[in-house]
């Protein structure tokens, strides 16, 4: 699988603002825009007659990275209109992810002498060359972003298998040029989106041969996949399979969201049912209660099942802060917390980390000790 990867690769935001735009890329993007616009006008697309169409088309190119304009096949102006339409549909949450499916055909690229080697007779060479160039017209159009060497190699391999099986090298309508599907998605851009889309395609048995991923300046994505593996050329069947898989994915997300909500409410109930303040036995001779507002928690340095350990400061002193996880708190944990504070405040020894204080009021239950910059004895002994 070939995925385009450069400075503006998958998941990266386009930054073609007037401040950061690359002048050369801007000129190239403008040139592609004019070429596509002229082709749309000459092809008499109804959209071209809508008020402000020119501005809307330029906005489409402007919101996408320069790589989009540089890679798109200018002769496929209808694909640009499809991308523009999908991005517009994705603005409505009910349409996400918006997608389109079409058949594409990829052809191998090989030098003229490879054709010559098939037929030594001059008339046969002419027939082969004529057939090769005519087949480039194709039953189906090429991919939106041309053909990478990866796709062309697959097509060339298929051609070789066809000839080895006894097929004609000049027959442009049979096996060597295998059709594929191009699937384009648009939705709100988010982390791990590309991974989710590739998983969705894999679930219905599709093999990704090439992918192009773009992010717009206003937070949307445009992801184009060239795939094979679908058993027929029927587009509607593939669309139905995609819709079912998307619905299945949405239902799973909703189920997960409901479970998370129930767990959150359960945690709240547990916290509410616990006392607002942990009682620590005292003899009245020391003061160890810390005002949480005077604590500054910084980076986390360790984590356990019931508490996280942070580095921080207390009254300008560098400290270690052990914070109990609210969702894990039980009455038994509170009892152990109370006992730990009671014992630690009684211990003063040069070989034992110094206890500074504790916060005993929910939800800021924590124990504050001196910070040992060189780590624990275990850390030192294992070096």
UniProtKB/TrEMBL annotation:
**Which EC class is this protein assigned?**
transferase
User: What EC number(s) does its UniProt record assign?
Assistant: 2.7.11.1
Which Pfam families has this protein been placed in? ACT, PK_Tyr_Ser-Thr
Q: Which UniProt keywords apply?
A: ATP-binding, Hydrolase, Kinase, Nucleotide-binding, Serine/threonine-protein kinase, Transferase
Domain Protein kinase positions? 295-383
Give residue ranges for domain ACT: 182-257
Organism the protein comes from: Gossypium tomentosum
Catalytic reactions on record = L-seryl-[protein] + ATP = O-phospho-L-seryl-[protein] + ADP + H(+); L-threonyl-[protein] + ATP = O-phospho-L-threonyl-[protein] + ADP + H(+)
The similarity comment for this entry is:
Belongs to the protein kinase superfamily. TKL Ser/Thr protein kinase family. RAF subfamily.
Q: What is this protein called?
A: non-specific serine/threonine protein kinase
Output the Gene Ontology terms for molecular function.
[protein-PII] uridylyltransferase activity; ATP binding; hydrolase activity; protein serine/threonine kinase activity
Write down the SUPFAM superfamilies for this protein, in alphabetical order. ACT-like, Protein kinase-like (PK-like)
């Amino acid at each position: 699988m070939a995925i385009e990867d450069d400075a503006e690769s998958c998941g990266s935001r386009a930054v073609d603002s007037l401040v950061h735009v690359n002048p050369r890329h801007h000129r190239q993007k403008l040139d592609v825009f004019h070429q596509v616009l002229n082709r749309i006008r000459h092809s008499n697309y109804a959209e071209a007659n809508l008020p402000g169409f020119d501005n809307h088309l330029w906005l489409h190119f402007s919101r996408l990275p320069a790589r989009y304009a540089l890679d798109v096949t200018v002769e496929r102006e209808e694909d640009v209109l499809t991308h523009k339409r999908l991005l517009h549909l994705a603005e409505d949450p009910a349409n996400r992810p918006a997608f389109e499916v079409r058949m594409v055909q990829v052809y191998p690229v090989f030098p003229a002498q490879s054709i010559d080697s098939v037929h030594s007779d001059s008339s046969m060479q002419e027939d082969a060359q004529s057939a090769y160039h005519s087949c480039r017209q194709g039953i189906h159009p090429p991919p939106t972003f041309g053909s990478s060497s990866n796709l062309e190699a697959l097509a060339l391999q298929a051609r070789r298998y066809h000839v080895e099986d006894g097929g004609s090298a000049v027959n442009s309508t049979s096996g060597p040029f295998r059709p594929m599907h191009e699937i384009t998605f648009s939705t709100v851009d988010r982390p791990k989106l590309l991974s989710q889309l590739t998983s969705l395609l894999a679930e219905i048995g599709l093999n990704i041969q090439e992918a192009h991923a773009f992010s717009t300046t206003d937070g949307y994505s445009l992801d184009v996949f060239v795939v094979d593996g679908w058993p027929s050329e029927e587009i509607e069947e593939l669309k139905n399979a995609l819709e079912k898989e998307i619905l299945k994915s949405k239902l799973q997300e909703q189920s997960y969201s409901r479970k998370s909500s129930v767990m959150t409410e359960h945690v709240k109930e547990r916290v509410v049912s616990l006392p607002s303040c942990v009682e620590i036995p005292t003899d009245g001779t020391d003061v160890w209660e810390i005002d949480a507002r005077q604590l500054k928690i910084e980076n986390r340095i360790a984590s356990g099942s019931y508490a996280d350990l942070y580095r921080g400061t207390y009254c300008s002193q560098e400290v270690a802060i052990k914070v109990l996880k609210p969702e894990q708190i039980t009455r038994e944990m509170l009892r152990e917390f109370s006992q730990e504070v009671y014992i630690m405040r009684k211990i003063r020894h040069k070989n034992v980390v110094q206890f500074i204080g504790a916060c005993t009021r929910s939800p800021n239950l924590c124990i504050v000790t001196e910070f040992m910059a060189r780590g624990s004895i275990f850390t030192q002994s294992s070096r």
